[in-house]
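Dear Dr. V.,

Thank you for agreeing to look over these. As mentioned in my earlier message, I'm a first-year student in the group and I'm still getting used to reading structure tokens, so any feedback on how I've presented them would be very welcome. I ran two proteins. I've put each sequence directly above its structure. The first is here:
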Amino acid sequence: MHPELITAQLRICGQSSAHIAQRLGVSRALVSRVIRGSRSNSRVQRAIARALALPVRSVFPTKTCAAAQIANRK
């Protein structure tokens, strides 16, 4: 999902990166980086997906698939 779409959907759901960051006890910058795809954090990805009521794979398809492939190699 495109970062701008994630941000817009969060707003529609009455959420924001600041709300998610506060709830998780992480920085807003981290949440923003995860949304933009420049940082991977499964806990933040799950929280964002949960806020959007969507599966993580729907919101972060590339990152989730890449992480699964790496995990399967081990």
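The second protein is here, in the same arrangement:
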Amino acid sequence: MATKKIALTPSPLHKPAAKTGAPSADHWVKTRSLDVEKEPQKRLTLDIPASLHARIKSQCALDGTKMVEEIKLLLEDRWPEKK
């Protein structure tokens, strides 16, 4: 039996769309990408001080972003893809 692979994209914030300006959950479900990622993903685990974690988490909450996306941006800036 063949298995069907479905790519999961990040879910929307749980805050009401009217307050955040973000699309509603229904909009996200209707428009999410079903393309399977082209490059395999690897998990990175690191230990950081609780105070640093709290600063990152609180700033991301204020900005309405996810910690993982902000950290990916920092890593990409430090080690850009060479062409």
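From my reading of the second output: The CA atoms of residues 18 and 44 lie 34 Å apart. DSSP finds four helices and no strands in the chain. Does that match how you would interpret it?

Kind regards,
E.
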